[in-house]
Amino acid sequence: MFAIPLGDGAELRPLEPWRAEEFLAHMDRARDLVDEHIKLAAAVTDPVSARALLTSYAEKQAADSGRIYGIWLDSTLVGGVLFRIFDAATGNCEVGCWLEPAATGRGLVTRASRVLIDWAVGERGIHRVEWRVSSANTASIKVAQRLGMTRDGVLRESSPHHGVRQNTEIWSVLASEWRERAGTSG
Known about the structure:
Elements: E1 4-7, E2 10-14, H1 20-35, H2 40-43, H3 47-62, E3 67-73, E4 76-87, E5 92-99, H4 108-122, E6 128-134, H5 138-146, E7 150-161, E8 164-174, H6 175-182
Parallel strand pairs: 5-6
Antiparallel strand pairs: 1-2, 2-3, 3-4, 4-5, 6-8, 7-8
Protein name: GNAT family N-acetyltransferase
Organism: Streptomyces scopuliridis
């Protein structure tokens, strides 16, 4: 297994099905914060559902259509990032994230997302990386901004969550923009 250092005692590692119990314990700590904006918390409620979600991402990785990674801080799983959608043939992917309250405000999601985008653009030739976020999720919008993404637009009342239709903002960065900011070409 590999781990990519993120600094300050944090690491990015694959989040695999055998970690289902650890993932569930983490989601129990993160549930209220995560559930405020995304459906991940509702999908992970017991060991069976935790394993099922991680298995679905293992299958996505095997099919080259998605991946999921955990963020560990001082050996405790505190959040994660993922390729919710990964389509190498079209050159498009979508990055997503979540974090538990004890780990917020440290830049972990921004650093972990940079690792994913660097890999997608540099290794896999992805042309466009998207970030979809509820307009009410200001913390996630700030991550998109720190990543240098451009707000493409808003899908008005496109996503029902807890009985309320939310606006979904679409943010993106193109490979040429990402490479330019990183000071590389090609």
